[in-house]
Amino acid sequence: MNSAPASDESVGHLDERPAGMTDPFRRRPPLRIRLLESAVRVLPRLPRLPLILAAELAGEVRYRLQPVVAARARANLRRVCTWLADNDRATPRVLRAAADPAALEGLVRSAFRHHARTYLEALLLPSLADDELERLVALAEPAIVHEAMRPGHPAILVGLHLGPIELQALTVRRRTGASTTTPMESVADPDLQAWFERSRKAAGVRVVALGAARRELLAALRRGEVVGLVADRDITGGGMPVELFGAPATLPIGPALLAVESGAPVYVGAIRRIGRDRYRGDLIALDAPADDRRRERVLALLHAEARAFERLIAPAPDQWWSVLFPIWPDLEPAAVAEAHRA
Fold first, then answer.
1. Closest-CA residue to 314 (of 4, 40, 14, 83)
2. Residue 93 clears pLDDT 60, i.e. is over it
3. I need a surface site. Which of 18, 98, 295, 335 has the fewest CB within 10 A?
4. d(C-alpha 74, C-alpha 185), whole Å
5. For helices 254-262 and 294-313, what crossing angle results, to 10°?
6. Helix, strand or coil for residue 318?
7. Is 70 exceeded by the pLDDT of residue 3?
8. How far, in Å, CA of 231 to CA of 332, rounded?
9. Sign of CA dihedral 122, 128, 131, 136
10. If you average pLDDT over residues 206-220, what whole number do you get?
11. If pLDDT is split at 50, 70 and 90, which confidence band does 14 have?
12. What's residue 340's pLDDT?
C-alpha cells in the first residue's frame, strides 16, 4: 500500500467541483432571511399601490392591537400640534388636531399607517434606478443639496425618524458617487444583522459598529465623504436635554461632538411623503457656533438641531414615527395610565 501523503497538486484536484455545485458544509440562511431576500427580489416588480394599501392596513391593525403605543402617540402628537398652533406654525390639518380630539385621533392612526410604510419602503426603495429616484423625489432647496453633497467634500447629515430614511442615502450616493457612513446598533440575531448590513449597503449606506463609530466617521470625513446620523431620539443614553416643541427632550450629542471635532459642516434633512408615491426632500444648513468653548459649541449645535427638527416635522407630524416611542419623560406615565384606563 502506498502510504505517501497526497501532493499539493492531487489535493487541489480533489477539491475542484463542477460549476454550480454548492458547498455541502455551507450553512443555509434561516427561513426568515430567505423570506426577506425573496421579498426584496419580488416586491419591486409588483404594482406599488396595492402594496402601500396593504402596509397601511397593517398599520391600522397595529393601532387597534397596541393601546399603550397609541396612547403614547396621542400624547406626543397632542404636544406637537398644540405647540405648532400656539406658535403660528400649524397647517390647517394640525390646527384641527390641536383643537379637536377626533382630528387628533385621525393623526394618531395616520402615524401608525406611515410607520408601517417605512418597512415596505425598506424593501422597495434600494432597487430604485437613478431616473426613478429623480421622478419620485422633489428637492425643496436644490442649491443647499448641491452645496452639501459635492463629491469630495465632507458633510455631516443629521436625520430623524421621519419618512423613508433610505431615500436620503440613495440621494447622497447619486450625487456624490459614494456611500453614506453611519453607525448602527447591532441586533441580537447575527443573521438578521448581516441582512441589515447587506440591505443598507444596497441603499448606499456603509454601516459601522457603535464601538468604532467615532474613528470610522472621522476617517470618512477626512476622505471627503458624507456621514449620516439619526439623532431625534436618545436610544443609547448619554444625550443632553434640549427644548423640543416647548418641553425638554434628550437628544444624542454625537452629531454635535463630531462637528466640533472635525469642523465639517452640518445639515439636517428629511424626506417626507407628499402622496401615495411621491416624496419631498428638505435640507437645512446649520450655522457653525461662534463660541470657542467646546461645551457651548455642542449645546449651540444641539439647540440648532432641535429647531431644524421642528421645521421639518411641522408639515407632517404623523410621518414622524418617533411619536410611537418615548420622547418627553413627563408624558410617558400619563400615556401608560390612559391606555390602561381605556
1. 83
2. yes
3. 18
4. 28
5. 130
6. helix
7. no
8. 20
9. negative
10. 89
11. very low
12. 64
Domain boundaries, the chain: 35-121+326-341, 130-319
d(Cα 19, Cα 279) in Å, to the nearest integer? Answer: 45
**Residue 7, pLDDT above cutoff 80:** no
* Beta strand extents in the chain (DSSP E only): 137-139, 155-159, 180-184, 205-209, 226-230, 240-244, 247-251, 266-273, 279-286
CA distance 340 to 13: 69
Which three cell numbers, joined as nine digits, stand for 298?
A: 455642542
Question: What pTM was computed for the model?
Answer: 0.86
Task: Please say whether the beta carbons of 151 and 261 come within 8 A.
Answer: no
> Is pLDDT above 60 for 17?
no
Alpha helices per DSSP H over 43-189: 48-65, 67-86, 92-99, 101-124, 130-136, 142-148, 166-176
- Reading phi first (left if > 0) and then psi (alpha if -120 to 50, else beta), residue 6 is in beta
Pairing assessment for the beta strands 247-251 and 240-244 based on DSSP bridges = antiparallel
Query: Grid coordinates representing 134?
Result: 429623480
* H or E segment to which residue 117 belongs: helix 101-124
